[in-house]
Specification:
The complex is a heterodimer of chains A (404) and B (304). Chain A is of the alpha/beta class. Chain A has helices spanning 2-12, 16-30, 53-69, 90-104, 115-127, 140-143, 158-171, 185-198, 216-225, 237-248, 266-272, 292-305, 311-329, 337-346; strands spanning 40-46, 73-74, 77-85, 108-110, 131-133, 151-152, 177-182, 204-208, 229-232, 256-260, 280-283, 366-375, 381-393. The radius of gyration of chain A is 25 Å and the shape is elongated. The N and C termini of chain B lie far apart (42 Å). Classes of the chains: A alpha/beta (404), B mainly alpha (304). The interface between A and B is large, with 41 and 49 residues.
């Protein structure tokens, strides 16, 4: 039927066909992906079980709170979240990503806590042109030589936390500073990051076993060494064990305990309690920030879940808000990857961290703050922000990244 | 000098804490010939119940006995429902079944108590160190663990060597078929032994809670160490578990304390920095391998 009408029209007006074809081709060339999507699909794969279960749960809670506040829409478009549990295992995460890409056809991916998972899943996501916005992992490889247009290290770059503590320690008059971390890549990274920020030689470097339970031997050695300060990087249960044993041995009286915010946030505080009072740590956010976005988030989180949010919850919340702003900026036209990337990079969302921007390697350029653990007016043991340690800090690997 | 004494005490304390867990494991393995991987889960349940009771009542001294009794009941239930069906089966079937219990227990604990680690603090009276000698301070809580470990070791020895039940236990562990033929009520004995093992694991869990993280999966990490202890000490033997635990505790502590420095004096700096901690971490497994080569039944085997 259409064929006859076409021929008839072409016969009546000789230039109708070429003109129509030209018009169609012109519009096709100019705006090939003009249609906004009807549903935003997000793959959220985090640790609900496994070594990072507490952190993954925080991330999930923060993300869900953001969605609730946005009426289950991102950029005004209804959203569907495909949530899975990768249990901290890179292979499981890869299987989830396969399913997300083939069956669920997601537009965005987020969730993993561990950098090993992030590094494992990014290649598949980038090949499928799906943006991975990291709500926690910030490996140095993806900030430097292996930076990728489809990866945004929305949270932070891992080493920055350690460098910040090192910078703080360097500014104090500690004569002897010792460091302790588990013997695995992130542990070695943390020691190197600290030394980079510290700028002076450390008095001793102790590498413990990953998952080690009892630190009495190391604590006895530290007692004999008597450093003025000790920097530890012991994520999860290891940090809980060490801090309890360190304070129980009475060493905290003469040795100032320093840690990155990873070992000193709400999850560890809830398990250790009073022995953590007086510990110095650094982070890029704390629940006592006074910008409106942060205060609104903290209040809503407490009302919804009955506890103070950790950095993991705050980052996941920021990630959701970042997607929301970017989707709105491109008016829902998520197939235009170039425009979407530009919108994500512009980061027009209101971060709980305050003013926020990305560096050219798509990692944040942000402040890192010194926090200490105190009893707040309500008698809770929690972090209090003291000062800025590194202002507008860009990670040390950005120079190696070739992204524009 | 004080460092040496302190490390010795550390090794002793670590060893005794391993003994509490290994004793239950070796009894069950030795007498009932059941490789009970879920022993670590009983340890975890003991710790979690102690943490909950301590949070509810505010008292550590109430929490520990409650946790021990509750875990004993759980152990009894486990024995009656599952372990009983594993007697006489090959060890692979037992591993599969008890491994399933580990997974179920982990998820059940996560469902009941949530995924975050719980707080279990030492009683305020024992929160700080005591001065044993000028220049030697030692955490008082660890001294409590040493004391409890020694008392329980003595109690177990008396139970096994001097009581009728202990005699039945020794008979069952050296030759079960003959013991049954001689009229020993085997099923009741096994239930009692399993519950006893569970209670010992709960004591370990509750006592170690203030030192270690009370978290899901805490049973698996300590179970590996317990298995190393009973391989070195000899399966089925309490004496073997005691000696094996002390050996493991002291070797591990000494390895971590002195090996890195020792290597740094012998080798070049770069190599020592990497090798020292790695060797210290695997020292006890090297020891286990050596024992398996030279004395495969362990140091004090129960069965001839």
């Amino acid at each position: 039927m259409p064929n006859e009408a076409f021929k008839a029209a072409a016969a009546r007006r000789p230039f109708a066909l070429p003109l129509t074809l030209a018009a169609v081709l012109a519009t096709a060339a100019a705006a090939p992906f003009a249609k906004p999507v009807e549903q935003v699909r997000v793959g959220f794969s985090t640790s609900i079980s496994g070594p990072f279960a507490a952190l993954g749960t925080e991330a999930r809670d923060g993300f869900n709170l953001a969605l609730k506040q946005l009426g289950n829409k991102l950029g005004g478009i209804p959203v569907e979240v495909f949530a899975t549990d990768e249990a901290g295992n890179p292979d499981t995460a890869r299987q989830h990503v396969d399913r997300y890409l083939k069956r669920d056809r997601i537009h965005f991916y987020t969730g993993p806590i561990g950098s090993n998972v992030a590094l494992a899943v990014l290649p598949t996501l980038a090949a499928a042109q799906v943006f991975y916005l990291s709500n926690n992992a910030g490996p140095s490889q993806l900030a430097g030589s292996q930076c990728n247009a489809f990866f945004f290290g929305t949270a932070y770059q891992n080493d920055a936390y350690h460098e910040a503590v090192g910078r703080f320690a360097g500014g104090r008059d500690y004569k002897k500073v010792a460091v302790l971390a588990p013997n695995y890549p992130a542990g070695i990274d943390s020691i190197n990051g600290f030394k980079r920020g510290f700028g002076k030689p450390v008095s001793s470097e102790t590498l413990t076993k990953l998952g080690q339970l009892d630190y009495a031997a190391e604590i006895a050695k530290l007692r004999a060494e008597a450093p003025d300060a000790l920097y530890i990087f012991l994520p999860g249960g290891m940090g809980i064990n060490f801090i309890k044993q360190f304070v129980g041995a009475g060493l905290s009286k003469n040795t100032q305990l320093l840690s990155s915010g990873f070992s000193a946030d709400e999850d560890v505080i809830r398990a250790v309690g009073d022995p953590m009072l007086g510990l110095f740590n650094t982070a890029h956010w704390n629940h006592d920030f006074d910008n409106p976005a942060s205060q609104g988030f903290v209040q809503a989180f407490q009302k919804e879940y009955g506890r103070l949010p950790s950095i993991y919850a705050a980052q996941a919340y920021d990630t959701a808000m970042m997607i929301d702003a970017a989707v709105r900026d491109v008016k829902g036209e998520l197939d235009d990857k170039a425009a979407l990337r530009a919108a994500l990079k512009k980061a027009s969302f209101k971060s709980v961290r305050g003013p926020f921007r990305f560096g050219h390697n798509q990692y944040p350029v942000q402040n890192y703050y010194l926090r200490t653990i105190v009893k707040d007016p309500q008698g809770r043991v929690t972090n209090r922000t003291l000062s800025v340690v590194m202002k507008d800090h860009q990670d040390s690997f950005a120079a190696q990244c070739k992204l524009q | 000098m004080t460092l040496l004494v302190e490390q010795l005490l550390n090794g002793l304390q670590f060893g005794l804490m391993l003994f509490l867990i290994a004793a239950g494991l070796t009894l069950v393995f030795g007498i009932m010939d059941v490789l009970n991987l879920a022993h670590g889960s009983l340890y975890m349940i003991g710790a979690y119940i102690a943490a909950s009771v301590a949070a509810a009542t505010g008292s550590f001294w109430i929490a520990v006995p409650v946790a021990v009794i509750a875990t004993g009941v759980v152990g009894l239930l486990l024995e009656v429902t599952l372990i009983r069906r594993l007697y006489g089966r090959d060890h692979l079937a037992q591993v599969l079944a008890t491994f399933a219990v580990i997974l179920i227990a982990d998820d059940a604990v996560r469902m009941i108590w949530g995924p975050s680690p719980l707080m279990l603090s030492a009683p305020a009276a024992l929160a700080g160190p005591v001065t044993l000698a000028p220049g030697l301070e030692y955490p008082s809580y660890r001294l409590l663990i040493i004391a409890v470990g020694l008392v329980l070791a003595l109690g177990l020895y008396l139970l096994v060597a001097k009581t009728r039940t202990g005699m039945l236990v020794r008979a069952g562990s050296s030759n079960r078929a003959m013991a049954a033929a001689m009229g020993v009520r085997v099923d009741r004995l096994f239930a009692v032994i399993f519950a006893l093992g569970a209670m010992l694991a709960a004591v370990a869990g509750a006592l170690l809670g203030p030192l270690l993280a009370v978290e899901v999966g805490m049973g698996q990490s300590i179970l590996i160490l317990a298995l190393v202890v009973i391989v070195i000490g000899g399966i089925g033997s309490i004496r073997g578990a005691f000696v094996g635990a002390l050996v493991v505790g002291i070797v591990d502590t000494a390895g971590r304390a002195f090996l890195p420095e020792l290597l740094q004096r012998v080798l070049a700096n770069e190599a020592a920095a990497q090798l020292g901690p790695a060797l210290a971490a695997i020292a006890i497994y090297l020891l286990m391998a050596a024992v398996l080569v030279f004395r495969p039944q362990g140091l004090f085997p129960a069965r001839a």
